Amino acid sequence: EEEEWELREMAECRNYEFENNNNNRKLEENEVEYFVGAYCSENGGNIYLGLFTEETCSQFADDYGGRETFAALSYGKSLPYSESTMIGTECLSCKEPQDADENNDNDNEDADEVIESCEQLYEASGKCEAGLSDSIQYPNNYACNFMQGIKIVRKNGAIVRGAGTQNTTASVFIGLFACSFVLLGGYVYYLKTKCDRAKINLSE
Length: 204
Hints:
Helices cover 35% and strands 11% of the residues. By secondary structure, the protein is of the alpha+beta class. The chain starts with 6 loop residues before the first helix and ends with a helix. The mean pLDDT is 76.
């Protein structure tokens, strides 16, 4: 029977006890505790579960995010989400269903057409409602500055800031500055060489 995993608990870095007797005796002899927790990939675009050796989940149990140690101590079982990300990029609809049922707790009986879970997420989130003043009486703009510098995940999983586009004007000025610096350096070297030759001629 497949072991049930509480991802919410595991993502918070929780102590993990292996269920086989041989490994439990080994843990008691070595006094090693293991913890399972979430961590970000190197490019910042994915979240994995790893096995750690301390309670802050910052020291991996091995060089493979702890998955090799987990497999060895659990008779070959694989650590869930150790190689596949815990999060997806798909979008979920916030439109509430037309028919009331037990699953949505009659949410469609309220005045709006948004499911309750999306309403709760929006209420708790940072907002930049500067362009919604016509439809919102008291727009919330406290998160506008944050959103301007927000990180964006590309399809390859890499994280970039802003829209990920290059600033052409800045690139032109950087290029001109670099060329000017090279030309100035060459001219200074020419003058230095010329002065050195003049000194040699005077000494002769």
